[in-house]
Amino acid sequence: xxxxxxxxxxxxxxxxxxxxxxxxxxxxxxxxxxxxxxxxxxxxxxxxxxxxxxxxxxxxxxxxxxxxxxxxxxxxxxxxxxxxxxxxxxxxxxxxxxxxxxxxxxxxxxxxxxxxxxxxxxxxxxxxxxxxxxxxxxxxxxxxxxxxxxxxxxxxxxxxxxxxxxxxxxxxxxxxxxxxxxxxxxxxxxxxxxxxxxxxxxxxxxxxxxxxxxxx
Length: 216
Prior knowledge:
The chain is about 25% helix and about 30% strand.
């Protein structure tokens, strides 16, 4: 069995140079380039995916807004959130984007299960969710709150961007957007759910599960 993706700890890093580094890494890949998982914590930033619509930015205020090339709508990154960028050669693994998303979501659900939190997928809405009876979201997201957001870009058969898991953060900026384009969708973190865990422990646990998912 191969060793699996290389895990790199980037610490706290600005969004724009990290995004540029992902693009450069992916553009320079060869068939022999090892997959990588980048663990990072970003300063406050709103990001708009390729399908992002400005009307979902309700009141960004002083927080920077970056239009990026991942899939999906608008989300927020900030301190206390574990972001893992999944730089994976899908062709080498023999999988497609849907399977990539499934494996990432499964890894998050495993981490949350270990923390005593029941979480799940919701059909048609990438990411990971917990039950929240106060949710005002419409459609299939009624009764749910989001704890992890997911956005992917695939270039030349290789993925970048990844997943953001809310651990212990200021959730107020999420009220200044329609999270992932869904009005009334609450956003929670592990701290709000009564789970006391450090960023480091959550990041390490998520990296372990993701590495298992992407080891041939």
